[in-house]
Amino acid sequence: MTQSSSGPGFRSTPADRPMPLAEARARIVESITPVGGSERIDLADALSRVLAEDVTAPIDVPGAPNSSMDGYGFTFADAPADGARLQVVGESLAGHPFGGRLDAGQCIRIMTGAMVPPGVDTVVMQENTREADGQLIIDTAPRRGANIRPAGEDLRRGQIVMRAGQYLRPADIAVLASVGAARVEVRPRPRVAFFSTGDELRPIDGPIRPGEIYDSNRYGLAAMLAELGMTGINLGVVGDSPQALRAAFAEAAQADAVVTSGGVSVGAADFVLDVLGEQGQVDFWRVAIKPGKPLAFGTVGNARFFGLPGNPVSTAVTFVQLVRPALVRMAGGVPAVPTRFMLPTQTDLDKRPGRENFLRARLRMDADTPSVEAIDHQGSGVMRSMSSADCFIVLPADQGKVAAGTPVWVEPFAQPVWGLPAG
Ligand code: AMP
Ligand code: MG
């Protein structure tokens, strides 16, 4: 299966059977080394960055026991049953602790987040009490220890708060703020050069003639890279000639990764694979996936190279299935295992055994019964099938036709891309 060819001509080798998708993904991800180095930045700027080192809590969170309710704090032994009465001798507010001390039979008014003073081991919620004649009457007694959050309930001093490799989401930013991590060490973002190939491609802000098309893939690629927080280096459109491709490859080789569209199939104007073999190294070509078979993976300079097929749906599907996990790894993150579940298909599905199929589809929730409905036009040039879909139906390689009502694997478009580090 491995092709270690370093020159043109090997595309005709009969032994080069398309590689199963799972194998291609594993090979790609395993071969990626995260971009080195790190930078220290303000936590406020750290959303969607990848943590470069473990963060340890320098303090307990919370730092002291505090009340989880608005109510009254007291010693449980003083008021263990319904109807108990206590004398209110002070109050503890968040940020304004009670400075005195409690004697037997006394309590304080205490608010949510306020420090629990020594001597108080229980808080009764306000709704279960009354005040009468300067006394507190507890109508419904809480259990001992109720409504008190112990020091270190969330995090203990010295504990690892977050692991290196964590992709920082809003909740992660809040957790880091809760231990006073004002600045954090994060990974650099991979620099990803990308370009389109094809003599038929035209810029989107001008006219086109019959036989020409707008270069839509480059916009789709730029958007998918932006969504990943990657620094895209847009190298424009490159014509279908080895000379033009050589120049583009030389420039792109400065980046950490290169993603191209088109020119990677068996056509008379497809030179990407040849130039990759010439100026770099082909690791493998062709994946048993539909759409997207003629994908090329390799290396050029220091950059990992992803030659995606030019059909717009193929470009999008192969990016999601193979490039995205690789870039997550390159960014120092952990590629999430794709989320899939089974739903009955609303319609019959056409399929021949051979390649894993990614049909564009919509999740349905009719009459509270989930199902999935394939988009009617599945051509790999019909990009509308992507934008009117919210999930893939994934049919395994050896699968044949599927009858309506049969459960099929569904992979939603919106799902975690960045997994959690181990530990
Ligand atoms: P290729 O992979 O170069 O053989 O291209 C396959 C199909 O995708 C052809 O119909 C191309 O015109 C189309 N295509 C290639 N590149 C682009 C692009 N950047 N934007 C839109 N369609 C493209
Ligand atoms: Mg082409």
Question: Helix and strand layout, with pairings?
Answer:
Elements: H1 21-31, E1 39-42, E2 55-56, E3 66-67, E4 71-74, E5 84-92, E6 106-110, E7 122-125, E8 129-132, E9 135-138, E10 148-149, E11 160-162, H2 170-178, E12 183-186, E13 191-197, E14 201-202, E15 213-214, H3 216-227, E16 231-238, H4 242-252, E17 257-261, H5 272-279, E18 281-285, E19 289-290, E20 296-300, E21 303-308, H6 312-330, E22 334-335, E23 341-344, E24 356-366, E25 369-374, H7 384-387, E26 391-395, E27 407-412, E28 418-419
Parallel strand pairs: 5-6, 13-16, 13-17, 14-15, 17-21, 19-24
Antiparallel strand pairs: 1-12, 2-11, 3-10, 4-6, 4-7, 5-9, 8-9, 18-20, 20-21, 22-28, 23-27, 24-25, 24-26, 26-27
Helix pairs in contact: 1-6, 3-6, 4-5
Explain what this protein looks like in three dimensions.
Strands 7-4-6-5-9-8 form a six-stranded mixed sheet, with no helix packed on it. The protein has four domains: 21-36 and 189-335, 3-Layer(aba) Sandwich (Molybdenum Cofactor Biosythetic Enzyme, Chain A), CATH 3.40.980.10; 39-61 and 153-186, Alpha-Beta Complex (Molybdopterin biosynthesis moea protein, domain 2), CATH 3.90.105.10; 66-149, Molybdopterin biosynthesis moea protein, domain 3 (Molybdopterin biosynthesis moeA protein, domain 3, Beta Complex); 341-419, MoeA, C-terminal, domain IV (Beta-clip, Beta Barrel). The protein is elongated. A hairpin with a 2-residue loop joins strand 8 (129-132) and strand 9. The protein has helices at residues 21-31, 170-178, 216-227, 242-252, 272-279, 312-330, 384-387, and strands at residues 39-42, 55-56, 66-67, 71-74, 84-92, 106-110, 122-125, 129-132, 135-138, 148-149, 160-162, 183-186, 191-197, 201-202, 213-214, 231-238, 257-261, 281-285, 289-290, 296-300, 303-308, 334-335, 341-344, 356-366, 369-374, 391-395, 407-412, 418-419. It is an alpha+beta fold and 423 residues long. The longest helix has 19 residues, at 312-330. Bound molecules: adenosine monophosphate and magnesium ion.
